[in-house]
Amino acid sequence: MVSAAGRRSFGPIPLALRRGFALEAGMRSLVYLLGLLAGLVGLSADPAPIRVLVWDERQPEQKKAYDGGFLGDAIAKHLASLPGLAVKSVSLNSPEQGLGEATLAETDVVIFWCHQRPLEQDDVRTEDLVRRVLSGKTGFVALHSAHWAKPFVRLMQERAKADAVAALPEAERAIAQWEYANEKPYRIIPKKGAAATPNVQKVGAVWRLTLPQCVFPVYRADGAPSHVTTLRPTHPLAAGLPSKWDIPQTEMYGEPFWVPVPDSVIFEEKWDKGEHFRSGSLWRVGSGDVFYFRPGHETYPVFKQAENLRVLENAVRWMGAEIRRR
After folding, report:
1. How many domains does the chain have?
2. Most CB atoms closer than 10 Å: which of 20, 68, 206, 307?
3. 116-168: per-residue pLDDT in tens?
4. HSE on the CB side for 106, CA within 13 Å?
5. What pLDDT digit, counting tens, does each position of 235-292 carry?
6. Alpha helices in the chain (DSSP H)
7. Would residue 37 count as lying in a domain?
8. 80 lies in some domain
9. pTM to 2 decimals?
10. CATH number, domain at 149?
């Protein structure tokens, strides 16, 4: 029909059609609101933090270099100030030596420092931690004199066993008989000319694996500076670090370091008297990651230096990401 004004009119829209339009508009609004809500949730929900446990023997001598406090607490305080990390500091004197089942179940990465009291570390707690690393549930970072920490020694032993089996002809691996020597390497410095460990010999029908000593023949605690070179600048552990940096005061460790051959050597350290060391070494042990970072000594402020702290940050972030990726 045509109105008096000449405009065409189609009459009222049927009720059912009006309801259909309203329903469609309502659904569009609901979809929009749900999408907006999902976006807001995505923006506001931070990923779960990487859970870091810093384990420290807490020697009184550390207070000389760490403003009256302990080395482990200083590391933990720094890491806790960074986004995405939840950090706890424990010691040999903590309940269950800081390595109780409940604590380990809530830990992604352990940073470990010890020196004079490794033999006081509980064997049961050590094995609990080692199993978690082997299963890929926890990463392990050993610092400086923790080369003789029980967890590090045990992990290097497990890697040495795996390497020894892998070196055999495939047909022999499942039937080979093994015996192990040097299961307690603590506090024994190798003599000059001694055979490097780990090593394998066949004695009759049995393969004899001498487990790694996890130490080095020379060291010097004179506080001389060292010079660090980043050997693998594209590795995540080297992120944000210069190609070279100096550590003003540190103890010297000299090669050879009697451990299984690392999968990667990220950093090398040298001294003006000619010594050198693989100071940032990485292994896959079982399904887990183990990193050894050499710089240190409790009376020098090594872990107040930005570059060294960045190495630790990189290690826990990379290990935490690897655990979640699995």
Report:
1. 1
2. 307
3. 999 999 999 999 999 999 999 999 999 999 999 999 999 999 999 999 999 99
4. 8
5. 999 999 999 999 999 999 999 999 999 999 999 999 999 999 999 999 999 999 999 9
6. 15-44, 71-80, 101-105, 123-134, 150-166, 170-173, 306-325
7. no
8. yes
9. 0.86
10. 3.40.50.880
